[in-house]
Amino acid sequence: MTRKETGKGLWRVSFIELKNKTKRYKVTRRIPHLGINETRMFSNKEEALNQFWEWSD
Questions:
Q1: Which domain does 47 fall in, by range?
Q2: Distance separating alpha carbons of residues 34 and 21, to the nearest angstrom
Q3: 16 pLDDT tier (thresholds 50, 70, 90)
Q4: Fewer Cβ in 10 A, N or C end of the chain?
């Protein structure tokens, strides 16, 4: 499992590579103190990284 995390301002954004039978990528953004989060799953690493950087801005 690979994990990358960044946080600018209110949101914390994480990128996780999940390895099972196939590789999947999980991108999550959250506001820790409010318990709000949104997660998206991808089978394509490039799409997952694009989402990660979009949410990181």
A1: 2-56
A2: 34
A3: very high
A4: N
